[in-house]
Amino acid sequence: MQQIPKSFFLFFALLMCGGYIFTFTLHDEISAEISEVPDEMNPSKEEDFQTLEIQTLERENKAFRLPGVKNQTWGFVLIESPISGLGDRFRAVVLGYHLAKLLNRSLKIDGLRMWKSEDEYLDTNVVNWRMTESEKLWMKSEDRTREIFMEINWKPPLEYDKIDFERLRDVEIIVIVTNIVRMNLVAANPILKTSPHYEDFNELHQKGVLYSQALSNLFKPGKRVLPHLEKIQREHWPTIDTFRIGVHLRSGDNPTLISNSRKRAHFDDDSMQCLVMTAISIWKEKMKSSEYKHVTFFVTADQIDYEEDFIQRIKSHGYKIFSNKNLGDARHISSKSADQLRTFVDWWTMVNLHTIIMSTNSGFSESASKFFCLPAYLSVRGGPCENRFRPFIEHGYCQKHFDQTFLSYARKTEMPDKT
Fold this sequence. Notes:
The protein has helices at about 10-15, 45-60, 85-100, 110-115, 135-140, 185, 200-205, 210-220, 225-235, 270-285, 305-315, 340-350, 365-370, 405-410, and strands at about 75-80, 105-110, 120-125, 145-150, 175-180, 220, 240-250, 295-300, 320, 355-360, 375-380, 390. By secondary structure, the protein is of the alpha/beta class. It folds into 2 domains: about 20-30 and about 50-220, no CATH class; about 225-410, Rossmann fold (3-Layer(aba) Sandwich). Strand 8, helix 11 and strand 9 (about 320) form a beta-alpha-beta unit. Helix 3 (about 85-100) packs across helix 8 (about 210-220) and helix 12 (about 340-350) packs across helix 13 (about 365-370). The longest helix has 18 residues, at about 270-285. The chain starts with 9 loop residues before the first helix and ends in an 8-residue tail after the last helix. The relative contact order is 0.12. Residues about 1-75, about 255-260 and about 415-419 have low confidence and may be disordered.
């Protein structure tokens, strides 16, 4: 039986040479063109060095121009305001990532504010979104010019297709404060259409992979998360012929776990059994091919009772299943005093599955499935069990329709074909 490499996260290295990779910012490229610092300006103290770094940053930004490119700009797009849960925060990141590219700006994220760490849970991947201390001081200065785009739960609604980005050409920092992503409006903006990067952006938009490109270019597992993921791989899918199915049970009942919102769903015996049979049926269909010989199930839930119930039901059918309950509760990221380790280990675990079943809409599992465009099943209706989950097989939720709204709203409108 063929063995998978010691770390199944080798694919993150592959991200560096394949997929949707492009030059994101000119901030690092122009540094070589800036004249060297004279010897008399060499810092002798730490505070002098920091001042010198800020002066260099000022000069870099003044040089941040593309000769001959129409509607060029310079400066930063900044994400620093945590809104609601992890899925909501990723929406701001995705929007900021693509606006920064279209506007020739550098994307920076305050990891301490957004997820309480710069590298423990989410580390930089292809794009260096982490701010240096000098960049933080520079951006906090009252001398900086800023423009804030704020839209929380569609209030107030921002019409990105009508924003005059030419007016913002000399604004140093554009701040994104939102939990909404509507790439269709960004794609329709006439000024952004003149960007040298618009053709690439629009191609990805038509394919529905804007979300995937942003997340996979920005993030890889952080230093606290990675050892747990490697252990999970060794224990639960040590070989490449093991098919991995994940289930996210979201009810919103427990304020200490994944969701602290109002009650969304209760899993009675019938609904729980339908979830179990749906998961097993996916494996039975996959068994018809010779690609996989084994299966393992993964479950994460915002109620421990639901999680345990699902585990026992799967085991009663003779299948292997695991959760990360050994790491404690999967607490909602907005809980200020909580250790977020299990929350992020659960999220990264789902990223590395083969398919995800969502009992109801959730930005938490939606973003995990979009990272690599995993095949997904979304609960969209009641009635007989065979009609309760809609499959998105070929590209999962990586569809143009889902890059511009929440899955919950997509469920209420006309949806694309199942595949």
